[in-house]
Recover the amino acids of this structure.
């Protein structure tokens, strides 16, 4: 989706210019780019290159790296934990991105027409988990999920939904779902702010004109508001995808990837491989595979985006 | 954009709209209210929990409202570890000092470590924000408005790197920071945040909106590149910078992973890391953990409430162009 | 452009100046280094060795009794500085949840601490085996070898005979029961309160009595990982006489019939949960707040803890009674904890020397070692320290457990991997995998790691 946005802006009419002018502009451009490039190349691209290089080595603490060719990659695809982690990573992204978008759109469209103070209050409340910070929020969620005295079991039993305590984070069936639920609460804040603002900016006269013409609420939404908030939706998709891929703190603090690797994501498994198993080369190979997958996804969308134009 | 929005506002509150508060809407608002309670609950629990007695917080049936308010948790938090309020080091000093330790030219008074963590976190977030906005505004402008060799390649690189989780480059980054003598300094957290290309991408989107004729006119008038940038480009992308500033601030505040990897000594921790450590060290003392969590959450929430208008406006601005 | 050049030349100048300073400092230190080496060779003479080199050293310590508390550690450092005012010691406190990762990142980040306090399983079997530690052979004088218990000594060195740990204190890890609840359900008849022992059948009968007495959660095989692994290992190994490794500490033997039977029995017992959502520390919390009636992650430091109530009482005032792990044979083999100091080799001889001076003072100086051990709330590792707990009822009672100490096998190669795999194995059993398969996978993975490191 990233590329969708990008592609729209790529085509620019290219007037013929002299080569001296081009050279001059190139120099000026790079001077503008320089500060940013230092950081981008130095702390993103350079480590990425090192990552690719190290992935061909058996690398561990305090020992010269041994070249092993593609051995790390071969091992990766026969490592059930890695496959599981890959699957979990995509489950998190595939579930949390659409749910975040849909939920925040639903909330926003309901609260946008309320009196100003109410809109502001709701928007604020939904934004609270974002500003509270995932570590502080996790402290409470850990207690809520507790097997023995957590609030979910307490309320569940009080209301009669469950008759026996459920070990939310200790059970393979629920653990990943629990993580995703927390992730959702910490990621809808921003989209709601965005949607409330975008919906508020939709030209109301057009909506009313449509309603006069007999369109119902749903049609008015789908035909007029939805296209108008499309750029917002795309932006939300981008930031939510990025956030979901980066989900790490929740896993490290709540389950450490367990039980039985059922909440391992690639991001956590890389950390685990590096600092529990001391296998740096193997961890880097994982990173490369994830990077390639993300790059392919981006490239596919780039092509799709280009065809659109 | 904001001008048109204002014009629309009166229309939005049209009486006919409110009259048609359908059953669905009422139901939706009730549901959302329930959700809102769930969202606000963690914060509520942190704040009330931090004032509860040990017995109340450890009780197996939840105590919804503190029966007795006590300050012991905060006293314990502040009586625990301590650290200097600030330490300003000579750049690369550790390279040259006799024992490989940083050379400090200014060290603040000793305060409870939690206060220092707050200082570190604010410093990290503010510096990341400033550096990101400054570098991204320049780069975004160049990418949007200038033709140069390698532009397409660079842009592809930026777009591809945008969704890349930082964990991927964890080991190389750690080694790099080590060789730059930046490990266990706040800069090791700041630099990768600044390097993350989302800001450049966002600022490029904003800079697209600058009319090319204006830039041409400035060039014909003989304005230098720097002058054009400062007097024409910057004012036009100001909303974008605002959006990026808020986005970076929140993101770096919550960037637990880089902090976890790069920072180790008590005086260099951030508040998130401090809370996580507090939790690991005192799993029996829930009240203390809550006090730490409250200390981490409340200041930024107050900042958020004060600047709510700018926050929401800033975030929304980002999307309009994004 | 111009600016950056002038700045760089400025830095160069600073660099040249401070390099000169560093050289001067090195020259100064190498002479006094010789002095302090001499003093450590003859510990008796170390009393007057106050002319040691000036140095800043970093000590990282895990929460080893009072060594995890800043007040206690600062007191000890103060008495060290009274004798060696030129060595500045800064302390960081690690925890068992993130501590290992923190040390590992610091090693990769090129700023490992100079001194670290933990046990041979980390200092010898992990970081020592990885070659990042400095050998402490010169601290292990003949007198020291004579004074320190042999089982402890052998745990502190690797196969090549290099010592990577200089020990300070030790204890036996045990389990604990909520005695008030046990009496309430009439199960105290199963417990020998004098020897603190019980048979496996008595243990299971106690669990059953508690469960039937309305305590749904009697005990938990906690397995979310990180810390407290000795408790789960010990209960499983002791029940039917299984072992964790072979006697020579070369391979893992947890897949023996005895161990499989123990795991199966624990898994099938009502009231015992294989709980992947909690770790050892959280098990203790649950035991203290009355949720669980037994704890497997126990030792004297827990018994003495007064965070929530007086020592030896749960939060609600129930009596906590420490017990040896149950055995069929009546001969419990408790896991020992040995703690002491190791030195990371950061390539700075002056710091290594200063760190050795510190160790020599804290753990070998006859005037200090008693206080250092007392601070830990554990037991001394050397005979000469004597009975530092004379007259202390709790400690004298607890010292009974020291007689049950088993083999210190935590220095088997591949230990770090084995520990991680152990949690995974318990988690798999908890989620219903066949015990034999799960244990076999554990042994295969752990032995592969052992073979790779040996």
């Amino acid at each position: 989706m990233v590329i969708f946005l990008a592609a729209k802006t790529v085509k620019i009419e290219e007037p013929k210019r002299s080569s001296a002018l081009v050279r001059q502009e190139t120099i000026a451009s790079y001077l503008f780019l320089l500060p940013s490039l230092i950081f981008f190349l130095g702390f993103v691209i350079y480590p990425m290159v090192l990552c690719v290089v190290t992935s061909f080595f058996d690398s561990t603490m305090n020992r010269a790296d041994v070249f092993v060719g593609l051995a790390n990659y071969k091992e990766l695809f026969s490592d059930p934990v890695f496959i599981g982690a890959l699957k979990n990573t995509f489950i998190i992204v595939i579930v949390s991105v659409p749910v975040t978008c849909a939920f925040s759109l639903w909330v926003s469209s309901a609260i946008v027409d309320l009196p100003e103070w109410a809109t502001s209050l709701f928007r604020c409340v939904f934004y609270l988990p974002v500003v509270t910070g995932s570590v502080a929020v996790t402290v409470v969620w850990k207690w809520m999920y507790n097997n023995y005295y957590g609030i979910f079991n307490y309320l569940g039993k009080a209301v009669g939904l469950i008759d026996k305590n459920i070990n939310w984070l200790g059970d393979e069936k629920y653990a990943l779902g629990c993580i995703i639920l927390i992730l959702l609460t910490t990621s809808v804040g921003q989209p709601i702010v965005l949607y409330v603002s975008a919906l508020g900016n939709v030209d109301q006269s057009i909506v009313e004109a449509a309603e006069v013409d007999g369109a119902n609420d749903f049609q008015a939404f789908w035909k007029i508001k939805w296209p108008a908030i499309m750029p917002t939706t795309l932006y939300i998709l981008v930031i939510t995808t990025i956030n979901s891929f980066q989900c790490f703190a929740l896993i490290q603090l709540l389950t450490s990837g367990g039980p039985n690797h059922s909440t391992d994501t690639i991001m956590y498994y890389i950390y685990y491989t590096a600092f529990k198993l001391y296998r740096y080369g193997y961890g880097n190979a994982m990173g490369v595979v994830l990077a390639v997958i993300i790059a392919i996804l981006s490239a596919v969308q780039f092509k799709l985006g280009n065809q659109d134009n | 954009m904001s001008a048109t929005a204002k014009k629309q506002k009166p229309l939005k509150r049209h009486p006919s709209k409110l009259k048609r508060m359908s059953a669905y809407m009422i139901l939706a608002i009730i549901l959302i209210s329930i959700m809102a309670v769930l969202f606000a609950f963690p914060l509520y629990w942190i704040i009330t929990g931090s004032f509860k007695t040990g017995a109340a917080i450890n009780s197996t049936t939840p105590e919804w409202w503190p029966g007795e308010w006590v300050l012991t948790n905060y006293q314990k938090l502040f009586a625990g570890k301590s650290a200097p309020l600030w330490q300003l080091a000579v750049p690369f000093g550790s390279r040259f000092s006799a024992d490989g330790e940083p050379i400090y030219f200014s060290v603040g008074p000793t305060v409870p470590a939690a206060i220092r963590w707050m200082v570190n976190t604010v410093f990290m977030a503010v510096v990341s924000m400033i550096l990101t906005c400054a570098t991204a505004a320049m780069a975004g402008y160049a990418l949007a408005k200038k033709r140069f060799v390698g532009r397409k390649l660079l842009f592809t690189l930026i777009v591809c790197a945008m969704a890349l989780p930082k964990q991927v480059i964890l080991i190389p980054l750690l080694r790099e920071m080590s060789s730059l003598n930046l490990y266990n300094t706040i800069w090791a957290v700041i630099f990768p945040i600044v390097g993350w290309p989302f800001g450049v991408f966002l600022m490029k989107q904003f800079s697209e909106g600058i009319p090319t004729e204006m830039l041409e006119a400035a060039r014909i008038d003989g304005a230098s590149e720097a002058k054009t940038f400062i007097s024409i480009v910057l004012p036009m992308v100001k909303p974008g910078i605002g959006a990026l500033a808020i986005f970076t601030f929140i993101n770096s505040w919550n960037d637990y992973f880089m902090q976890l990897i790069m920072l180790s000594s008590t005086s260099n921790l951030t508040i998130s890391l401090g809370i996580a450590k507090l939790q690991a060290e005192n799993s029996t003392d829930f009240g203390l953990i809550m006090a730490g969590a409250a200390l981490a959450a409340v200041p930024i929430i107050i900042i958020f409430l004060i600047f709510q208008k700018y926050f929401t406006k800033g975030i929304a601005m980002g999307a309009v162009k994004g | 452009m111009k600016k950056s050049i002038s700045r760089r030349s400025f830095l160069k100048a600073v660099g040249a100046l401070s390099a000169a300073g560093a050289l001067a400092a090195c020259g100064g230190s190498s002479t006094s280094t010789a002095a302090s080496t001499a003093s450590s060779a003859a510990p008796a003479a170390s009393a007057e060795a106050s002319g040691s080199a000036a140095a800043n050293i970093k000590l990282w310590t895990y929460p080893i009794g009072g060594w995890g508390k800043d007040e206690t550690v600062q007191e000890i450092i103060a008495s060290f500085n009274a004798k060696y005012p030129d060595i500045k010691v800064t302390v960081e406190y690690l925890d068992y949840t993130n501590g290992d990762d923190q040390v590992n990142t610091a090693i990769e980040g090129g700023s490992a601490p100079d001194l670290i306090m933990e046990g041979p399983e980390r200092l010898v079997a992990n970081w020592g085996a990885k070659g990042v530690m400095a050998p402490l052979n010169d601290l292990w004088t003949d007198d020291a070898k004579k004074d320190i218990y042999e089982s402890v000594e052998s745990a502190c060195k690797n196969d090549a005979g290099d010592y990577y740990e200089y020990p300070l204190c030790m204890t036996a890890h045990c389990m604990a029961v909520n005695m008030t609840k046990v009496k309430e359900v009439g199960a105290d008849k199963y417990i020998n309160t004098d020897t603190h022992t019980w048979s496996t059948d008595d243990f299971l009968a106690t669990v059953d009595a508690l469960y039937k007495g309305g305590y749904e959660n009697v005990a938990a095989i906690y397995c979310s990982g990180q810390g407290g692994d000795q408790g789960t290992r010990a209960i499983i190994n002791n029940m039917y006489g299984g072992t964790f490794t072979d006697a020579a500490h070369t391979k893992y033997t947890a897949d023996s019939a005895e161990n499989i039977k123990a795991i199966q029995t624990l898994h099938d017992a009502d009231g015992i949960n294989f709980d992947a959502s909690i770790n050892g520390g959280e098990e203790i919390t649950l035991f203290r707040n009355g949720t669980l009636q037994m704890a497997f992650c126990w030792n004297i430091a827990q018994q003495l803890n007064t965070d929530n109530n007086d020592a030896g009482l749960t939060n609600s005032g129930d009596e906590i009674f420490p017990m040896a792990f149950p055995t069929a044979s009546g001969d419990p083999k408790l896991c020992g904890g040995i703690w002491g100091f190791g030195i990371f080799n950061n390539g700075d001889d002056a710091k290594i020397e200063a760190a050795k001076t510190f160790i020599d003072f804290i753990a070998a100086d006859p005037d200090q070692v008693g206080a250092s051990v007392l601070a830990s709330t554990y037991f001394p590792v050397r005979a000469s320290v004597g009975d530092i707990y004379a007259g202390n009822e709790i400690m004298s009672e607890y010292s009974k457990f020291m007689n049950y100490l088993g083999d210190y096998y935590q220095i088997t190669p591949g230990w770090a991997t084995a520990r991680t795999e152990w949690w995974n194995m318990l988690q798999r059993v908890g989620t219903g995998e066949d015990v034999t398969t799960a244990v076999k996978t554990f042994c295969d993975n752990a032995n592969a790691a052992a073979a790779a490191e040996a």
Summary: Residues 1-51 of chain C have pLDDT under 50 and may be disordered. The longest strand of chain C covers residues 336-343.
